Amino acid sequence: MEVIICPDADEVGRVAAAKVGQVCAAASRPVLGLATGSSPLAIYRHLQLMVGEGRLDLGRASAFALDEYVGLDPAHPESYRSVIHRTVTEPLGLDPDRVHVPDGSAEDLEQAAAGYDRAIAEAGGVDVQILGIGSNGHIGFNEPTSSFASRTRIKTLTQRTRLDNQRFFDSLEDVPTHCLTQGLGTIMDARHVVLVAQGEAKAQAVAATVEGPVTALVPASVLQFHQRATVVVDELAASRLQ
Ligand code: F6R
Question: Which residues form the Glucosamine/galactosamine-6-phosphate isomerase domain (predicted)?
Fold first, then answer.
């Protein structure tokens, strides 16, 4: 696991975007793995700059989001379908037909989950997976005790994650209780993984991920087994590393 400590949150985005761009440039049809939430926004801003300045061509790229809420109207501004469209697809000029988000409003969620894993495989697998990390060590919505072998599936969100995400909704009651998320096994299949974290609230989760024992209680710790995992953090998120 490569760990890069940056002076501030914007530099985290720049360094992580450079890594993502490097992987994309080496692939003829790059397949990106996308995270939502606050952490990756600086990466998307820097990728947009790189595309705008002609330093990166994503014209042939496709993308797969990590997760989606269950039971939230896809047109809701906080559905991950909407968030990905607003923060990634449009600014980076990706072809919307090649940007995929799990279907949290499918009638048969298990079938939708299995179909999602198949679609990733049919696209040739993810070249570079962008990840944030929850304050409880989750990646995607793989909450503590998630199986390392898990594939895309339905999960119940913990109270802590619902409280963390309440800021995007009017009240806690409006935060969905379930989601569809890529599994830890699905995420580990990506050929490169770039995890970013900023701020002191992530410091404990980062330390447990990088230096703690590999345990299902800290789902991100499974990345210690990944051959090409890069963790890019600011000084505050790095503050509990030894
Ligand atoms: C989002 C996701 C989550 C977030 C994590 C951190 O697609 O999969 O794992 O990355 O909850 O969220 P932020 O970045 O908002 O602190």
Answer: 11-229
Asked if the structure places residue 239 within a domain, the reply is no
64 within some domain? yes
Q: Any residues with Cβ below 6 Å from ligand 1, and which?
A: 35-39, 66-67, 132-134, 138-141
* pTM, to two decimals: 0.97
CATH number of the domain within which 229 lies: 3.40.50.1360
> What is the Å distance from ligand 1's center to 38 Cα?
7
Residue 170 CA, ligand 1 centroid: distance in Å: 19
Residue identified by tokens 């790229």 is 61
Atom of ligand 1 nearest to the CA of 40: 14
Answer yes or no: are the C-beta atoms of 66 and 186 closer than 8 Å. Answer: no
Q: What is the pLDDT of residue 141?
A: 95
Which residue is listed with tokens 């609230």?
Answer: 201
pLDDT, tens digit, 9 for 90 and up, residues 168-219: 999 999 999 999 999 999 999 999 999 999 999 999 999 999 999 999 999 9
**ipTM, interface predicted TM-score of the complex:** 0.99
Judging by beta carbons within 10 Å of its beta carbon (0-12, 13-18, 19+), is residue 192 exposed, middle or buried?
buried
